[in-house]
Structures are given as C-alpha cells and as structure tokens.
Amino acid sequence: MRYLITAALPYANGPLHIGHLAGAYLPADIYARYLRLCGHEVLFICGSDEHGVAITLRAWQENTSPQAIIDHYHPLLEASLREMGISVDFYGRTSDPLHHRLAQRFFLRLLEQGWLEKRTVEQFWDAQAGVFLPDRYIVGTCPHCGYTEAYGDQCEKCGALLTPTDLLNPRSRLTQSLPQKRPSTQYYLRLDALQPQLEAYIQERQWKPNVEPVIQNWLRAGLASRPITRDLNWGIPVPLPEMAGKVLYVWFEAPLGYLSITQKWAEAQGDPKAWELFWKDPSTAIVHFIGKDNIVFHTLIFPAVLIAAAEGYTLPTAVPAHEFLTLEGQKISTSRRWTIDVDAYLRHAPHRIDELRFVLTALMPQTRDRDFTWEEYATRINNELLATLSNLIHRVLTLLWRLGPEHAAVTFMPLLEARVEAARTVGRRLEAYDFSGALEALLALAQKANKHLTEAAPWHQKEAEARLTLAGFIDLLAALGTLLEPFMPVRIAPTLRRYLNLSLFPWSELERPELLIRQLRLSGPPQPLVPKLTATELAQLRAQLLPAAPSEPTAKAPSTKPQESLQKLSMEDFRKVQLKVVTIQAAEPIAGTDRLLRLLIQAEDGLHTVVSGIAQHYKPEELIGKQAVWVANLAPRALRGVVSEGMLLFAETPQGQLVRISPDIPVPPGSPVK
Known about the structure:
Blueprint: E1 2-7, H1 18-37, E2 41-48, H2 53-61, H3 66-83, E3 90-93, H4 97-112, E4 116-126, E5 131-132, E6 138-141, E7 150-151, E8 168-172, E9 180-189, H5 191-203, H6 212-221, E10 226-227, E11 229-231, E12 246-248, H7 250-253, H8 256-268, H9 276-279, E13 284-289, H10 295-309, E14 325-327, H11 342-348, H12 353-362, E15 370-372, H13 374-403, E16 406-408, H14 413-431, H15 435-456, H16 463-471, H17 474-483, H18 492-500, H19 507-510, E17 519-521, H20 535-545, H21 571-575, E18 579-589, E19 597-603, E20 606-612, H22 620-623, E21 627-631, E22 637-639, E23 642-644, E24 647-648, E25 650-652, E26 658-660
Helix pairs in contact: 2-3, 4-8, 5-10, 12-13, 13-15, 13-16, 14-15, 14-17, 17-18
C-alpha cells in the first residue's frame, strides 16, 4: 500500500520544543518507520510554515524583517528534526515560489467554481501605525476569565477561542493605542455551502475519540463562511488587481503546503508528475499528524478546499491529532520562556536523543493532555528503559561474549511466542495510533524475558548448560534490533544490531513463530546501551534547559499522581458547599469548542443551566435522563457566552476518563448530598 505521511508544518518563527515533538513529529516518525518495515511505499513530508502573523510578530519583536526570520529558523527547524531521528523524506518551505503559485491557483479555481464571496467587514485599525491589526496584534481583557493580556484569537490563561471584537478594552500591541474599526474588503470561503459534501466525507472515515467530537460539534453547530484573505504586508498576494496589498490567510494556504511540498519532492526526483500518485490515486492513504488546535483545519477546512477545487484530489484518510504536553504542570510557552527547546536539548544532551524519544513516547498526549517533568524523565529512563530493557540486552550480550563470539540459536518456545505476540501487538497498536501502548507492549516483552533469565540464572550454570540457556535468547535479541527501530532509531536500535552483526528484518518475519537467525556472531564486547542518568546529570540538564520558573503562572494540568499534601478544610467551611442530586433534562454542544456541553438540569426549584467540559467523554444523548451531583451554590460564570450556574461532579480515572457521579438508585431532583 502507498502512504503519504505529513506532520504539521512548524512556524518558522522560533525553535521546536518538546511539545511539538510529542504532539506531531515523533508519532509521525514512529508510524512512518513502522510502515516502511512492513514493506509499504511511504513518503513522509514536512516543511516550514513561513507566512502569517506569527512570522511578522517575531520580526516586529526583533526589529528585523520577516524574510530574515524565516531564513534563520527554516534550516534550524529541519536540522532539529533530522538530529532527533525524524525520518522526513523531504522538508520544504511555504515561501517557495512553487507554493505561492499553487496557493494562488487554488484561490482562482475556487473563485471560478463559485465557492468564494466578497464581503466588506469591519476590522481593527491602528491610526498611529496606519495599518489594519491582525488578531495577534491586539490584546485586551478576556471576557471569560478577565485575563488582561489575552490575544485577539485566544486567551492563553483560560484557553478560550476569541475574535478581536470579543476583547474588552482592546489595544494595539504596536502603539498601545485604542484601535478603531474600519471597513475592509475580504474574500470568504463558503463552508456552509460545502457542509453536505463534508458530512459525507466525514462519515466515510474512522476518527480518533478525541478528534470526532470536535468535528461533530462544528457540523452540528453549522459551518459558517470564513475569510481566506487578510490585510497584511507579509504573505502570498491575493491574485486579483483590486486586492492589492492583501494576502491569502495563512490557514487557507499553509495546508496546501502538503501538496506543494510533495510537488517539490517530485521535481527533486526528476519526475514532476510523481506527486499525483500521492494526491490523485484513491489507493493512497494520506495521514496528517497534528496537534489538537489544528483539528478543524485538517478535517473540515482543508478537505473543503480540496473538494471545492473539483480536480480529483484524494482527501485525508486519517488525522491522528494529539492533545497538549505541559511542562512541570504549566502550559509550554515560548513567550514566557517556559519551554524545553529541541535544539538546546540536542546541544546539551546529544548522547540522550533516544532517551528523550522514549520518554516522550511514553508520555505522548494521545487523547488527553500529559505532563512532562524532569523527575519523570529520570524515572522513565532509569526504571524502565535502563532497568527493564537495556539491562536485559546487556546481561545477555555480556554472558554470550564471555562464552565466545559465535553461537547457534535454539528455539525457546516461551520467548519465541512472547516475541511473536509482542510484534503483533505493537503492530496493531501502531496502526491504531496508540504509540504509548505499543511501547508498553515492548516493555512487557522485556519484563517476561527478564523473568525467564532470572529464573534460569545462567551465571550459576555450567558452561554447556549456560550456552544452551542463552541460545534461547538469541532470537529475542535479533527481534529487538528491529522492534526498537521505530522508537529509538538514532543510537540504541542501530547499536544493538551492530553488536549482533544484523540488519533490519521485515516486520512480517517478526510476527512468524520461526527463528529469525540460526547463527550469531558478535562484533565485539558490549557496552550498556543506556547509561544511568545520575542526579548530577539531571540537575545539570534542568539548569541548562529550564533555568527559571515561568514569568506568570497558568492553571496546572490535571495530574493522576496523588498529592503529597492537602489543604485541610474546616467542617464549617465544608457545610457552606451545597451538593444536590439533579436530573439532566437536555444536553447539547457549544459551538466553537470541542470540550464544552450545555446541560439543562432539574433541581427542586426548577431548571438550571450548567456548562461542563465533558464533550470528549460523553455524547449529549448519553446524559439525558441521568442523575448527577451538582455544586449548587457556586457563583455563576460565563463560559463561551453561556452563563453556567454551578458545576457537576465527575471522577477521573488514571487514564484521564471522566466518570459521572450519581446515586445508586434514583432520588427526587434537588435531594441534598450529605
């Protein structure tokens, strides 16, 4: 089968951080490497996103030009990915003239097909600077949480999505002046008219559980036309004379970068038509790896553009979006200097690239936000990668080397069966985009092998018996040289294969209950694949990569770890909290959010509205008629324009699933909880 794998195009306005790796580039690489081992034809592309406000804002902050910014960060981004072992086949950029021509051609094609409409709208204007203000050039007070430094597109404190006109007390970031509203002409993509075709496409695909609710919420709310042009002096010019001084909106042209970069790859291969196999052959699977903030663009808007073009483009097969990775309980933020930059990590820990890949795979935010801490980094390396996997390999290799460089392999059925089952499990989980689960299957295999090795204790056996015992582990070592490749391909997997004098095996051979090799010749005395991470090294890394606390606190990410200490509450204070059982009478998603549901609950005094962040855990129809526990006397709070009266209580499982709390038997609405 043929696959086109893409990873989100990183903005060329700063270095990559570990959240980017865990959310898009590492899963894309693991998946691409696995598919290649399965014998599939794979093209893995990526590239720098070099237009839009993120670029101009960085240029403004550094008093330089957008071109200087992208020319600095584009090679840095590619180098960081390649040094991390991300096996991109071709890395392009959206400032390439080919991309400009493609994006402009799509604009004209959609205009010709009747999918664009011209509108005159009001936009913020900075009279002192003499320019229209893009959303990120405007700050003000968030209407939801009161944060006074919210951007015009999103509040970084509470996460609410905004438009510039939502802000209270807006001001220009350029001059700090109060912006004015002025009319401006823009072109809009008629997403509302394309909704029937999008719904048909969505129904044909299988979506991850954290992706489908986002899509369905947008579709249920009804798609609206969206602007695809804007007033900005950096970007791809709108190809119409009357639109001079305006550019294509980055969210419209950037996803087209997947197509233009594939075309650029085809040109580099000397076959300019080769891109059509990946974009116009329905037998090709297109898989986009992205973060959750880009779900709508890749599942609805980009497919809408391809559909509207009516030129036979293949639509995305899957969009395995990931949630966010936080850092020490805080949101990663480059502006607040609360981040671990990949290029800095590569400079200070070039010998621990695979270790970082291992930890980020274990902590991958597949369906919920996860938290990276230096403590867990050390624990995962020392207690799992080193103690479970590396020590197993090193012990067996060392014992084999002491007995001589050449050995005959024998069948040891418990390990052979465990290897076959592990290979099949890893494959199934990777094909389901469960990367953490696949890694867990590998660790489980190592744990079984460690148990067999400890029970056999070849170090206490006579030479002939020890040689026979260890011969039963040779097949496992040979398999691990390939099983580890998708996860740790920079040093650990290649080093193991070098010790064994082996190449990669096709994945199908790992799934067959037959010995992979009959004869083994070791290349030399082995060294531990993973050196222990000492407290000194850990402290040094943290000081080099995360030198200070964030400049201002944000809400901590949920944690499944027990709290070391709890603030004690007096009985008098506890009695102030009014808990009541209520019945949910109605439930519906709130437009523009993938997380919130509007619930209508019945209490003893009538109906109340509660906004609850459970849309990724419950479908609205599953809640109607069910009872729940309500905190009745919380002060009302506006969320996404809806006033929420109190909150409902849910328990959280270790996997992050929210579970409704309710009485064992039905009770009258409004019954107190005591």
